[in-house]
TrEMBL record:
Region called Disordered, residue ranges: 112-143
One Pfam family per UniProt: Ribosomal_S24e
Lineage: Eukaryota, Fungi, Dikarya, Basidiomycota, Pucciniomycotina
Name of this chain's protein: BQ2448_2611 protein
GO biological process annotation, one example: translation
Species the sequence originates in: Microbotryum intermedium
UniProt record similarity statement: Belongs to the eukaryotic ribosomal protein eS24 family.
Amino acid sequence: MLQCPFDDDYDPTGAVTIRTRKFLTNRLLQRKQMVVDVLHPTRANVSKDELRDKLSAMYKAPKDQVIVFGFRTQFGGGKSTGFALIYDTKESLKLEPRYRLVRFGLAEKRPASGRKLRKERKNRAKKFRGTAKKAKSEAGKKK
């Protein structure tokens, strides 16, 4: 564990206060969304995993339906502000961008195809129009 040599207040297990504001129940997207203020005067920062734990306890929701992102620490430290989404159902998580689901282990990362392969497929598809173009690009993926 790294500790700042000139900072006597540093305590990695220190208390954390979480406040939410601009709370909105978004019925169309089946989620609650809010701005999250995290006060952590004795810590450098708070992990997203820990924030998800605390928010799921605060709002009585399963941890895997809580998504936190966009956290910025204020200059001088001690306070971070970010955004949280709490989905009503596991099914409504499909509205969340895939990269965020991968980040929290809720989805598998797609295997990346090579740059050259992508370019070749793109150039092969240029020779066709409409549905034939789609069929040819799908055939290229199966190879």
